[in-house]
Each structure stands twice: as structure tokens, then as C-alpha cells.
Amino acid sequence: MLMASIDGVMEPSEIETLEGFINTLPEFKDADFDVQMAAARKLRAKFNSGQEAVKALGEISSEAVRKKAFILAADIAMSSGDVDDAEEELLEAMQRVLGIDDSLAQKAVEILALKYAK
């Protein structure tokens, strides 16, 4: 949700990607998309900026979940066709906060670029 809204516009493709994640990822098994989106909006409203909100991700203790969060955010950023400056800055901040090494981040972006190549 944070990535989808960081540039001020939630593109339909970003919303579709979010819904796909909620409908398929094990962390969201039996979750309702609308309920999850409402909870995400409420949580996001607690922070003054996206950069401030990303700091909260530092509380994730599972390395696997940290990596997954970064990859899913990159996927959402790329799903709209272009990664704009705000999305790029958020990805960089997430990489730092989540402790994602450069090689994994680069691999993820390369693979996702193939996914969305036309």
C-alpha cells in the first residue's frame, strides 16, 4: 500500500497487483482485500510521510519477510510501467531499512523488469 500510494496516485495496475498479493500470499490467507486496504490506510495515516512510514518496517524480525516486503514493493512499483522518482526513493529507503543487500535488490529489479517487459 505504501509503494502504491507514494507518488500520490494509486494506479489501477498497482491496486490489481496488491489485490493479487493479498489473494495469493500465505501471510494473507483468508484475508479480505477491502479490510486489508482499510487497515493499511489507517496505519499509513499515522505517519507524516512515506519515508517516516518506511522506518516502521525496521521492526520486521524475519529475514524472509523483510526480503519479501522489498520484492513485493518493487513489483508494485514496476506494475504501473515506470518507476518514478518517489517510488525509486522509497525502494532505496526500504532497501536500507530492511537490510537488503545490493546484489539481491539488483537481481529482484532485473527479474521484475523481465516480468513487465513488453
* Helix run count: 7
Mind describing the biggest β-sheet? none
Cα-atom Rg, whole angstroms? 13 Å
What's the total number of strands?
0
**Helix/strand/pairing class, anyone?**
mainly alpha
Tell me roughly what share of residues is in helical segments. 55-70%
Shape: globular
What amount of the residues lies in strands? under 5%
Sketch the topology as an H/E string, one letter per element.
HHHHHHH
Distance between the termini: 25 Å
What is the mean predicted local confidence, pLDDT? Answer: 90
Unreliably modeled segments: none
How would you summarize what this structure contains?
With 118 residues, this protein is mainly alpha-helical. The chain has seven helices and no strands.
Task: Write up this protein.
- By secondary structure, the protein is mainly α.
- It has helices at residues 2-5, 12-24, 33-44, 50-55, 63-79, 85-98, 102-116.
- Helix 5 runs antiparallel to helix 6 (85-98) and helix 5 packs parallel to helix 7.
- It is globular.
Q: Which characteristics define this entry?
A:
single chain, 118 residues, mainly alpha, 69% helix, 0% strand, globular
